[in-house]
Amino acid sequence: HAFPLVPLAAALRDAGHAVTFAAGTDVLDAIASTGLATVAAGGRLRDGFAVVRERHGITGWPPEPDAVRTLATEAFGDVLPRRTLVDLVPWLARERPDLVVAEVGNPGAALAAATAGVPCVLHSFGRRPPREAPMFFRANAPVAALAAEHGVALGEGDPLGHAYLDICPPALQGEPTGAELAELPLRPTAWNPPVPSTPTPDPTRPWGYVTLGTAMGNADVLRTAAAALAGLGLDVLVAGGSVDVAELDGLAGADGRVRVEPFVAQADLLGGAHPPALVVHHGGSGTTLGAAAAGTPQLFVPQGADQFFNAAAVTALGAGTTVDSAPSPEELATIARVLLDDGPARAASRALAAEIAAMPSPADVAAAVDRWGRPSAEP
Questions:
Q1: At CA 359, angle to CA 21 and CA 189, rounded to 5?
Q2: Are 356 and 167 spatial neighbours (Cβ–Cβ below 8 Å)?
Q3: pLDDT-derived band of residue 244, with 50, 70 and 90 as boundaries?
């Protein structure tokens, strides 16, 4: 959730503002590669989930959806925001910034701003949580309890800021939640730190990109997807992410058509001159919006969390297709063949990319910070 905020932070810095980026230590070095000043806050995401698993006596990642929601609710509603709040309050009291831009999935930053009396604007990382997303709404209670501990009165549904920077294009956005916030469009602009090992796709050949992100990987699904795309004649790049590449041994054949990397420069690949012909992925917000901005059809294999909602939104628009979380090779190949054609899915994907391109850029939004950054100003 940190990387989607980097383009605006860099744009504010480039516009002459003093900017400090607060994040967990697992991403701090990557963000510092931009030259932005950084401060550690909140700890590592995996450590937060480890605390919750220990509370419930759970080892590994439970297969039951409700158990996953319970872990996520406590991690994102209590453990992680609590740590962020504790780390940020003394920093805010000392530095007295004019504005906090808080990622909407980490209410600890917004609560720290409220505690310190600093104006706060929320920054989305993807679609607005739909009403049928139970984890997001179950997290309201622990967030309110945490706020009360620090003297912040927070009623049900009360916003934690005075404005909301929305990086989701209208065609994919969910229904309003009822929060009284000024909603400001901001073009989703993918960013990644330098990843030297990322291969350069052959510009003369179509290629497919396969990833299940950095949280809920599945080696069998990656193998199935890579084999299906290679069988259709595509070069294939697989990003292992949370899957150890050792589990994917043998996937890269002798012909070199399939390439496996632990991490890749995803933003550079999707935003480059030769984007993939098809992206097979989990439905994480970053990959969904990155592929959408590239005008690339998407084949979703959701594994959990908000991935099902993202997949459903793109599929409803006709810019992709969703399959079961453990599809067969034949199913993937059949659907991929349709998505690779220059047909309705590609046309819908191009239309979505055009809508994203028309949204205000980070530089445009940064130039107007004096308006949206102040609670009493008109956005």
A1: 40
A2: no
A3: confident
- The arithmetic mean of pLDDT across residues 257-285, rounded, is 92
Give the pTM: 0.90
d(CA 221, CA 56): 28
Handedness of CA 352, 235, 202, 209 (dihedral sign): positive
Least Cα distance to 71 among 83, 86, 55, 87 occurs for 55
Average pLDDT over residues 307-321: 93
Three-state SS for the chain is CCHHHHHHHHHHHHCCCCCEEEECHHHHHHHHCCCCEEEECCCCHHHHHHHHHHHHCCCCCCCCHHHHHHHHHHHHHHHHHHHHHHHHHHHHHHHCCCCEEEECCCHHHHHHHHHHCCCEEEECCCCCCCCCCHHHHHCHHHHHHHHHHCCCCCCCCCCCCCEEEECCCHHHCCCCCCCCCEEEECCCCCCCCCCCCCCCCCCCCCEEEEECCCCCCCHHHHHHHHHHHHHCCCEEEEECCCCCHHHHCCCCCCCCCEEEECCCCHHHHHCCCCCCCEEEECCCHHHHHHHHHHCCCEEECCCCCCHHHHHHHHHHHCCEEECCCCCCHHHHHHHHHHHHCCCHHHHHHHHHHHHHHCCCCHHHHHHCHHHHCCCCCCC
Radius of gyration over every alpha carbon of the chain, rounded to an integer in angstroms: 21
Distance CA 91, CA 313 (A): 39
Tokens of 216: 């809920």
pLDDT band at 128 (very low <50, low <70, confident <90, very high): confident
Please give the angle made by the CA atoms of 225, 229 and 234, to the nearest 5 degrees: 150
Tokens 């992100």 found at: 213
pLDDT, mean of residues 78-82 = 88
Write down the pLDDT at residue 311.
92
Residue 16: how many other CB atoms lie within 10 Å? 8
